[in-house]
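Data availability (excerpt). All sequences and predicted C-alpha cell strings are deposited with the supplementary files. A representative entry, Nuclear transport factor 2 family protein, is shown inline so that the format can be inspected without opening the archive.
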Amino acid sequence: MMSRPPRAVTVLMAAAAFCAATASTAAAAHAAQDAGRRPLRIVNEWVRAWNGTDPRALGALFTADGTYIDEAVGVTFHGRKEIAGWKARADGLIDGVHVSVRATRRDGDRVTVEAVYSGHIKGAPAPFAVPMTTSLDLDENRCRIVSDRDHYSLATVLAQSGLPADWTPPAA
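C-alpha cell line:
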C-alpha cells in the first residue's frame, strides 16, 4: 500500500516548483530586457573607431552609401571615403578625440547613444568635454551604419576650449 505524503509536504513541493518556474521566467525576461539595453557590437566598434587613430576604421562601419551628419558643424558626408576623411580631419584638428558612452537605447534599427565627446583643439588654451547624442540608423542586419547624426553644442566646445564663438578651423 502506498502512503500519501502529508498535505504540508505536498504544498511545499508545489510552492518550490512554482518558485523555480517563476524564477526561470523572471531570469529570461530580465536577460531579454538587458539584451535590449546592452550596446550592440556596432556601437562598441563605432566608439573604438572614434577613439582610434585609423580614420578608415570609422568609414568601414558604414554601408557603401552611408551618411554622416555633424549637426553642430553643419556638415554632411556620404560614403565610406568621405566619412573616413571627416575622421581624419577631426584627428588633425583635435588632439585626443574621445567618445565615452553613457547610455544607449535601441528602437528597432535605430540606436541612440548618449555620450561625452572630448578632446583638445590644437592651439586652444583648454580641452573640452561636452554631452553628445548620436542617432545611428542601422542596416537590416544591424551590422553596418546607414546614417549617423551627431548632436552636440559647438558653442560649448568653443567656450570650454577658450576660443571665441566665431572661431573657425584653419583651412585644410
